[in-house]
Amino acid sequence: MKRLLFFLLIVAVVILGYLYLQRPAVDATGKLHADLYRGASDSWDPGIQTFPFRPQDIDGQTVGSSTAIRLEWKQPKKTYNHFLLTVTDPATNTTTRESGEHDRVSLDITGLKPDTQYVFALQACFDPRCQTWMIAQDETTARTPVEFWSEDKEPILLNP
Questions:
Q1: With contact defined as beta carbons under 8 Å apart, do 41 and 134 qualify?
Q2: Fold observed for domain 33-143
Q3: Where are the domains of the chain?
Q4: How many Cβ atoms sit within 10 Å of the Cβ of residue 51?
Q5: SS3 of residue 106 by DSSP
Q6: CB burial class (10 A; 0-12, 13-18, 19+) of residue 71?
Q7: In Å, how far from its chain's centre is CA 91?
Q8: CA proximity to 133, closest of 82, 95, 91
Q9: Cα(105)–Cα(46) distance, integer angstroms
Q10: Cα-atom radius of gyration of the chain, to the nearest Å?
């Protein structure tokens, strides 16, 4: 009886170990860019912050470009080759990617649509083709401002 219990204990440990090794390194639950999270080898907290791009004061309010957002972050402690930022408009599922050198800690994302919510996933790529990477613990969301003026329209006042 003792041998059977010992054998079952060994089998349970082997099965649990196998299941532990088969789990994804990073939790992709609820992520828009789930495939990036499932494929990552690790994650880090880059403390991503979003800011208005080229902010201006309009009627006492600070407003940035309606087609751009500035992102800033902290680098991971692990050495990596370059970063890759995936930008997705969830309403249209349109995705673009921007990359840069490993020592950059900010990026101005331009060519966006006004008054649109975007989701950002930041990767630190270990090799030039980004076949192995770590990813920011959380996706970041930001909305571009509404369009206040256009070259072919009258300015829109915030507080008429």
A1: yes
A2: Immunoglobulin-like (2.60.40)
A3: 33-143
A4: 14
A5: strand
A6: buried
A7: 17
A8: 82
A9: 9
A10: 22
Q: Which amino acid is at 115?
A: D
Report strand pairing: 94-101 vs 106-109.
Answer: unpaired
Query: For 116, what's the count of Cα atoms within 13 Å in the CB-facing half-sphere?
Result: 21
Beta bridge partners of 140: 120
Both tokens of 113, joined, read 């649509």
In tens digits, what is the pLDDT along the chain, a chain of 160 residues?
777 766 666 766 555 544 444 445 788 999 999 999 999 999 999 999 999 998 888 788 777 889 999 999 999 999 999 999 999 999 999 999 999 999 999 999 999 999 999 999 999 999 999 999 999 999 999 999 888 665 555 555 554 4
Q: What are phi and psi of 66, to 5 degrees?
A: -80, -5
Contact 68, 80 (CB under 8 A): no
Q: How many CB atoms lie within 10 A of CB 53?
A: 19
Q: Which residue has the tokens 């992102």?
A: 71
Tokens 């571009």 found at: 144
Using the structure block, give the residue that is written with the tokens 């054998």.
Answer: 7
Degrees (nearest 5) of the Cα angle 10, 13, 17?
A: 140
Q: What is the 3-state secondary structure (H, E, C) of 41-58?
A: CEEECCCCEEEECCCEEE
Residue-wise pLDDT tens digits, 25-68: 788 999 999 999 999 999 999 999 999 998 888 788 777 889 99
